[in-house]
């Protein structure tokens, strides 16, 4: 079990933590196939071992290529779901994409994360790697302030009849589960095909299709609009400074819990970005266009083809990402 810090004070999306006990385990996540971050990983691991006798975990692919295997430990794929119970805090080395990767490692509770940039200052990496000893010591030895970054859950539903030898994923909204017979499941009820959790955004895009796409958007069961254009971005405040910003969306302070809708190259002047309350439940459905499909991309890395009859349900995740502040959430931003 980890020594997850106790909440000393919480105000909205700002939380001050204090350790119950001295941390014992740290997970270091580095930029993939990058020699500079590998060098800093080895240096940091040696210092953490010598100074604080911390158990240093890294991802399985990292330990294979590292020269400091005696200082590092890893975990199996079967053990990955236990990271949230074992790790006290996380260190990231790289760019903003490294933090997005960390988000994908933790499906539920996320330990506090301290993020170091290696020269290029990103929106999500406030700490300078040259000052890592002082920065990490401050986190280990005293209280620290975190920004609670809201994440989104996206379930992809299928209306198509599906036969499977395994029970389907139970829907996360109030949809009746299909009946289950021994050895086989056959259902025409909507079921969850796949589920994703994102820190930045869910993007629906027509891709290489030469025709514009039409996406019907409903909020809490009420129709908002039919969005015609190249696609639609559903972003968090954290994701407002990523792809959404490039498409004309506003920059949103990370402490504002909201859901941001940003049309991609809309064909109508009335299709403008919109901010929604964080308790909104969105349903996105591509209006029937024979032979066409769209692509759904999650945090710019994972992509799924959305077929005719499929639809997406997007809502706030119960598990935010906790990023440790260097100064405060506004100055860091």
Q: Briefly note the CATH topology name of the largest domain.
A: Tumour Suppressor Smad4
What form results from the Cα inertia axes? elongated
Beta-strand share of residues: 35-45%
Q: Indicate the radius of gyration in whole angstroms.
A: 21 Å
The main pleated sheet reads as: 6 strands, parallel
- What is the subunit arrangement here? single chain
Mean of residue pLDDT? Answer: 87
CATH-assigned homologous superfamily of the largest domain: Probable inorganic polyphosphate/atp-NAD kinase, domain 2
pLDDT < 50 stretches = 169-182
Pfam families: NAD_kinase (PF01513), NAD_kinase_C (PF20143)
Organism: Dictyostelium purpureum (Slime mold)
GO biological process, one term: NADP+ biosynthetic process
Keywords: ATP-binding, Kinase, NAD, NADP, Nucleotide-binding, Transferase
Task: Provide tags for this entry.
Tumour Suppressor Smad4, 333 residues, alpha+beta, 2 domains, kinase, NAD/diacylglycerol_kinase_sf, six-stranded parallel sheet, Rossmann fold, 7 helices, elongated
